[in-house]
Specification:
heterodimer; A: 370 residues; mainly alpha; ABC transporter involved in vitamin B12 uptake, BtuC; 14 helices; 3% strand; B: 306 residues
Chain lengths: 370, 306
């Protein structure tokens, strides 16, 4: 029987912290090829359809940006949470509440038009997401309730609430009974960046600005230092006078606001109205984006584009090869697995120990002593 | 009278998958490992169980397949967190995401197909006793298994030496390791047991509760099972009580919808999730109780040094 053994590295490996996302991506592609072969599809053909064809024309790059924008926006917020060792996994719900809050103006006050409409909508979207995120934060700080479970439960509640709104009070009376709100007016629609070339809208710019902003905060500002200290050692953070409860609120409100902004941007930009389902699981996929990007905002931009491609590829294989688009979710799940596994290489050396091999007791100890 | 019996029966059917999954996760967490992948293992068990039952026509083979699929899927988590010492929260989440995607892909061809249902217990004479007959002698086999499993886990954890060892690992893996206990091996077995239970719970959904395959049919039950373990402060009999409370909430909102109570159905559907939050808050308010019962090394990766 073979056995894995982890040997702690004296310091984290700089090489592997750069390489690990790439190794993970390569492993995902290999595992994906095996999966396609099992499904009876030529892997090279499938690879071409999945990863190359969806980004071979300019308008398709715009579609990529549309999918990447919410992923990046949500993931940069989550990265701050996770750095602080605080686990907001309810971004999907905060995304929905952001979209609902932001839609208050175009749905309830459709006659209100002008240049003020959009900024107000975006602001309301952020407020909605942040308010919804404040619930698990409040419960955690006040009653030390596990934030993972509460934030996740609120996702289901948010989905049901949206479903009720668009089938009930907010349904378009002229919509022939379809469960959707009225189409947003022009002044409530997020403008496209280059309407002649493709559909990409300002949401992608928001995502890039947020990524750079959070990167500056994390690397250049005291707040970022506070996040990192509290995340790696809450005790040290307390001695430095950083409040843990304040940090819980800060990270939840920040990530909630960004998820809310992503929600209203998606609805006002790509969709144009509220529907029972407005997200193909962006809030959960963003968790993968955050880890694939090594919890670094700039890495997250790249990771967001990669995960956006998995969505487009999923749609492409469905139309071209007749494979379920669920394959995208499988790719995303595998990718996260491989990323987490490869991250082990940063902190540990992996040794395979054969059944018969004698135990080397002295060598690693010497190494540790040095 | 018949209505009451029927309601009690449906509550038991709704509570059984929660109980089985939560009991499995309780053993995992008692060994100091937090596996957030219950939802993913459950849905994989559901699709595996449905598929095997549909293809062979035997619900029993389906049930067996559900257990095996759940256990194999949890092995993935075990290798990652135990052998590679990855972050347990993130790995558990990815197990759930992968399970939801993979089950959807595997189950595409099962949608709308008629499934097979595990027959209820039927003892001639006994099962037809009015009122109690059906409740005690006429339920699905997994109901009895879930009760027996709870009792067995209770006995194992608190009355056997191995159970004591398992709990000691959960409280301090370093001390256990220093005593020469094979921490990683125990944890592997605990995680696989948890996976088998979650798979079985999923099998209950697709072979008993609603004998068909619907995408995402676990509908958050895996997460509720995780909450149940916290609610029960890691004690098996409290998991049993909790599972039945949640089963009652789940069935209560369904009946309320059927009776046409003038509240939007979406609000009623969100009750189980809201109830989970309320219950978690109530239990975590009592910090001393939580502190006393939480396995002290829950969620911390362990790398044996020599």
């Amino acid at each position: 029987m073979m056995r894995l053994e982890l040997v702690k590295r004296p310091q984290r490996s700089a090489l592997f912290s750069v390489l690990s996302p790439f190794i993970a991506f390569a492993l995902t592609v290999i595992a994906g090829a095996i999966m396609f072969a099992l499904l009876g599809v030529n892997p090279f053909n499938a690879f071409n359809v999945y990863f190359i064809q969806p980004v071979s024309e300019v308008w398709q790059l715009h579609e990529l940006a549309i999918k990447a924008a919410p992923l990046i926006l949500i993931a940069v917020g989550l990265s701050v949470c996770y750095k602080a060792n605080i686990w907001n996994i309810g971004a999907e719900g905060q995304f929905i509440l952001g979209s609902i809050f932001g839609s208050i103006i175009p749905v309830l006050f459709p006659d209100f038009e002008g240049p003020l409409v959009l900024p107000l909508m975006l602001l309301l979207g952020m407020v909605g997401g942040a308010l919804y995120a404040s619930i698990p934060a409040l419960l955690k700080t006040r009653f030390s309730t596990n934030e993972i479970l509460t934030s996740l439960m609120l996702v289901y509640v948010a989905q049901l609430f949206l479903d009720w709104l668009v089938r009930g009070p907010w349904r378009d009376p002229q919509g022939h009974g379809f469960p959707q709100t009225i189409q947003f007016s022009d002044s409530a629609t997020l403008p496209q960046l280059m309407p002649d070339a493709g559909r990409a809208n300002w949401g992608f710019v928001f995502a890039l600005v947020a990524a750079v902003g959070i990167w500056l905060m994390m690397s250049r500002m005291l707040k970022g230092f506070e996040v990192r200290v509290l995340g790696s050692s809450p005790r040290a953070g307390r001695f430095a006078g950083f409040g843990f409860n304040k940090m819980v609120f800060f990270t939840f409100l920040l990530s909630g606001a960004l998820a809310g902004l992503a929600g209203i941007s998606e609805v006002s930009g790509a969709i144009g109205q509220l529907q029972p389902v407005i997200s193909p699981g962006y809030g959960f996929t963003a968790i993968i984006v955050a880890f694939l990007g090594r919890l670094n905002p700039l890495g997250i931009v790249a990771a967001g584009l990669v995960l956006a491609l998995t969505y487009l590829g999923g749609e492409a294989v469905q139309t071209a090869l007749g494979i379920s688009d669920k394959v995208a979710r499988v790719f995303q799940g595998m990718l996260l697995f491989f990323v987490l596994g490869c991250d082990t290489l940063i902190h540990y050396r992996i040794r395979l120990i054969g059944f018969a091999a004698p135990k080397l007791e002295a060598a690693p100890k010497l190494e540790e002593a040095r | 009278m018949d209505i009451t019996v029927n309601i009690l029966l449906t509550i038991a059917t709704a509570a059984t998958p929660l109980l089985i999954a939560a009991i499995g996760e309780l053993v995992v967490e008692r060994s100091g490992v937090l596996n957030l992948g219950v939802e993913g293992m459950m849905i994989m068990g559901a699709v595996g169980g449905f598929g095997a039952g549909y293809l062979t026509g035997s619900p029993w083979i389906g049930l067996l397949a559900a257990i095996i699929v759940g256990a194999l899927f949890s092995l993935l988590f075990a290798v990652m967190t135990l052998s590679l010492a990855t972050n347990q929260v993130a790995t558990g989440l990815s197990l759930t995401l992968l399970g939801l995607g993979l089950s959807g892909m595997i189950g595409t061809s099962f949608v709308g197909q008629p499934g097979v249902r595990l027959p209820n217990l039927d003892i001639p004479g006994l099962s037809s006793i009015p009122v109690v007959g059906k409740l005690i002698f006429g339920q699905d086999p997994l109901f009895y298994l879930s009760i027996a499993l709870t009792a067995a886990v209770m006995w194992f954890l608190f009355k056997t030496r191995t159970g004591l060892t398992l709990r000691s690992i959960g409280d301090s893996h370093s001390s256990a390791h220093a005593l020469g206990i094979k921490v990683i091996r125990y944890r592997y077995l605990a995680v696989i047991f948890g996976g088998a239970c979650a798979g079985l719970a999923g099998g209950h959904l697709s072979l008993v509760y609603t004998p068909q395959w619907v995408e995402n049919m676990s509908a958050g039950r895996g997460w509720i099972a995780l909450a149940l373990v916290v609610f029960a402060s890691w004690r098996p009999w409290r998991v049993l009580a909790g599972a039945y409370i949640f089963g009652a909430v789940w069935i209560g909102q369904l009946h309320a919808q059927a009776f046409g109570i003038p509240v939007p159905s979406q609000f009623l559907s969100s009750l189980p999730y809201l109830a989970t939050i309320v219950v978690l808050v109530l239990i975590s308010r009592n910090k001393r109780l939580t502190m006393m019962n939480t396995p002290a090394s829950l969620g911390q990766p362990f790398v044996p040094d020599r």
